Please model this.
Amino acid sequence: MKTGFQAALRLADGIDRAQPEARLCCSQGPADQRRADCRQRDGAAAAVRGCGLGAAVPAEPIPKPEFSEPKKNLMSYPHRIAQWYSLAIVVFAGDQTAKTYIEMTTPLRWSHEVTSFFNLVHVLNPGAAFSFLAGAGGWQRWFFLAIALAASTWLMWMLLRPQRRLEALSYSLILGGALGNAFDRSVRGQVIDYLDFHLRSWHWPAFNIADMAIVGGAIALVLQSLVSDDKLTAEKETR
Model:
């Protein structure tokens, strides 16, 4: 009897000296609940015996919450949409500013030599880019205007979706150029061209900033398709 009482005192003394993180699972209630109580604290100094649970129940550490580091230089997609739309607006505004200046300050068919291969001119183009279908008779105005409006609507819809950077750049350039020439056809009836490159007596058809943006966007689309094809080929070869 005395030996049992001394053993109980030693057990109680060991519990009192345990680290503060240890928790005594002697709460009232079902055995499963008491076992769960024993696992609530991390870093218990010792397993706690008794309370009618039989063998010692080791304390389990509480998992620490994981915090993912914010990704740097990651722009949210709504901001990218505004970026690409802004680029299209800049192309449109630059083209219309140049056209308005040429229209207000120079007479029709005016030409000014800048270098031996480049002139500033003031000509009207009833056709498409680089004077395509310029002599068709007038119907091409509404035809090209409808195409420009349909293409602009599709491009604006495409820019609302996630796109690769080069692809989005090409859509923005084509959108700005298409809107620039569409505005000319709807308001002025014809497109104003003012950039004339030539080699001696041979002249490339005059064009404008909108035409340059459309061609630049088309080139960017071709480059994007070539890059995608190269990646696809490389992936197939590694398999």
Summary: The first strand starts at residue 111 and ends at 113. Residues 124 and 188 are 10 Å apart (CA to CA).
